[in-house]
User: What shape does this take?
Amino acid sequence: MMLPLPVSLSSVRRDHLRRHTGGSRHYRSTRDILLTRARVTNLGFLLLAVFAAVSFLVNLAWYLSSSDEYRPYTHEGPYSPPRAIWDTVSRQPALAELDHLIMVPGHAIWKGSDIEARFDEDQWVLEPYQRGGGRIQAFFKHIVTAADLAHQDEHSLLVFSGGQTRPFSTTTEAESYMRLAQISDLLPTTPGTALSTNVVRATTENHALDSYQNLVFSVARFHEYTGRYPARITVVGYAMKGRRFSELHRAALRWPTARFAYVGIDAEGDTEVAKQGELQNGYLPYTQDMYGCHGTLLAKRRARNPFLRFHSYYSSSPELGPLLNWCPGRAEGGQTTVFAGPLPWDDLK
Assistant: This one.
């Protein structure tokens, strides 16, 4: 048994028959067509489509008008940090005047509390090769020298950088350096206003797993702490690592040479063997893998992250996201291809 045709189709066929059997010609009005019965009337469908289009345009206009409302920094671009983060941040005005990043890369973790025992190796979490040779003294000299530089420049921020890299430690390299500096009364401050306390011009960057991340993460942390990006960078670390920072890591960030300085202090016991080790295990690998995201350098990062931590900079410094995520391979022209996207410091000379 055949089912009856839908009303709308039957009506159309009757009109067709009338036109072709000599009957009077009948033209259906637009209103009749829109009101033709169906599961959803054509008029109803049109109204729904118009409503959806108007709703989309209203929401788009609201998004475009409010995207900059919560942006606390002046860098212009297509990036907007999440509102939920900045709602919890209230910076002292003095921080906006800072423009010089002074960074100390961490090499070990101090677990002590007695300043008099700061050179006791048992108060440090060390790798076997770090014992002896005056290395602990060198770590402390890095801290003291960087603090002195920060005291000399009231527009500087001292950043200790280094993650929780050791499986038997409950803190990060950066936090242990900061604690040692604080106990030693080395941290620089800026006088506050009548309504605020002194501003400590020092902080930690707690996520870096290697020297490249020491640099790029400290720039991101500077922005996270002050609300702006630095105009100058000074790194205080091992002298034998100076080329790695100045020639490779700085270039990977496209940071201007004239606005970058490196202060090198080696341990008294460092020998040519140590310098060759830096060349073979540090400098040369980065000449082949500029961003440290392949092979051996990537394996080192994973080995130094036993607590599976990751940073906040994709949210707090979103305009650095493409750089932080840059891992060039064959498709990008090779592992030494420099990131070519926009960066907040592109206008620096």
